[in-house]
Each structure stands twice: as C-alpha cells, then as structure tokens.
Amino acid sequence: MAVLRLFAQAREAAGTSSVELDGASVGDVLAAASALFGSNFDQVVENSKVWLNGEPTDVAVGVGADDEVAVLPPISGGCG
C-alpha cells in the first residue's frame, strides 16, 4: 500500500493528513482516495499538484508499497 499525504485544503476535505491506499499507479491511489473521501476531495485534487516521493508526477506512473503520493493544493495568501 502506498501512503497518500494530504496538505492544506486536501487535508481538510479528507479529514486526515495521511492514509494508506492500494493502487498500481498514482491515478489508482487518487481514485481510491476519491471513493473514500468524496466529491469535495475530488474538487481539491483537480486544482492540486501531485507528487510521488518528493517529485512532480503523472497519474500513469506506477507506485509500490514503499511509495508516498502527496496532494499539494495551491496556497493563497501573502502580504496585505
């Protein structure tokens, strides 16, 4: 099982910062998360960067038991 790490709005939508999920690819892991966390989570992922083991990735890339997939939503803010 790969570990899915969730940050900012993704963490809020899922109600957790990480979860272990089965999947042969990054896309499979995200699909399993979608089934678990629902449509609010899907909306966040649509606008997020997805990384595998600390590097930008594509949904077609394979994952193994020791891999970490991270969902990084855009961060807003700054000086006002």
Provide a descriptive summary of the structure in words.
Pfam families: ThiS (PF02597). This is Molybdopterin synthase sulfur carrier subunit. It comes from Candidatus Neomicrothrix parvicella RN1. The protein has 80 residues and is of the alpha+beta class. It has a single domain, classed as Roll (Ubiquitin-like (UB roll)). Helices cover 34% and strands 25% of the residues. It is built from three helices and five strands. It has a five-stranded mixed sheet. Strand 3 and strand 4 form a beta hairpin. Helix 1 packs antiparallel against helix 3 and helix 2 packs antiparallel against helix 3. The protein starts with a strand and ends in an 8-residue tail after the last strand. The mean pLDDT is 94.
Task: Give a quick summary of the entry.
The protein has about 80 residues and is of the alpha+beta class. About 35% of the residues lie in helices and about 25% in strands. The chain has a five-stranded mixed beta sheet.
